[in-house]
Amino acid sequence: MRIALIGAGNIGRTLGGKWTAAGHDVVYGVRRPSEAGTATVADAVAGAEVVVLAVPGAAAKELIASLGGDLAGKVVVDATNDVQGSGKLHALDELTGGAHPVRAFNTLGWENFADPVVGGVTADLLYAAEPGVAMDTADRLIRDVGLEPVWVGGVDAFDVVDSVTRLWFTLALQRKLGRRLAFKVLRDS
Ligand SMILES: NC(=O)c1ccc[n+]([C@@H]2O[C@H](COP(=O)([O-])OP(=O)(O)OC[C@H]3O[C@@H](n4cnc5c(N)ncnc54)[C@H](OP(=O)(O)O)[C@@H]3O)[C@@H](O)[C@H]2O)c1
Q: Ligand 1 in contact with 16 (CB < 6 A)?
């Protein structure tokens, strides 16, 4: 897949490294492109099938608004958490018609994306997306990071996924269990 990663920090570089290793064509959309593999945000988005938002949460809504119709037809994965804001953690409500939103890669610290085996067990990644291209793309991208995808639901489940983020923050940071903390859903099959 051709993936535009908007933001080249902890999350962007970690996910981008995994997807490049898995054979995807990754371009980083950044504000000051200079290195190989980087482009302006607009150019990165224009050439991509999948756009992954990995910027500070406070910048995500404005970023989506500035891209507007350029996101039409693309799968847009929001990995951002607006932890300083007073509203929703995600920015996907700002998307206009024609884009395929995915809420994923926001519920665990980046260290667990770099190494998804935690305590000897492959971690789950809970995500939400509508069935079809959004869900299929998310499932593949999660597996290509080395995590086990667990589908929580469609767009109505974005806030449920975000409740997992709040649980991660509470356990890892407030209860001081540490950032190498992840989740596993257990069930009889
Ligand atoms: N860190 C984690 O463990 C973790 C886990 C899950 C989700 N998240 C979420 O993922 C997002 C990124 O976190 P991070 O730790 O990767 O942050 P980070 O290391 O600070 O990287 C943020 C990146 O976004 C870029 N950026 C900032 N504003 C931008 C804008 N308006 N347009 C384009 N690029 C912009 C920055 O580039 P410049 O050099 O231009 O400033 C930088 O490359 C956050 O929303 C965070 O809540 C983080």
A: no
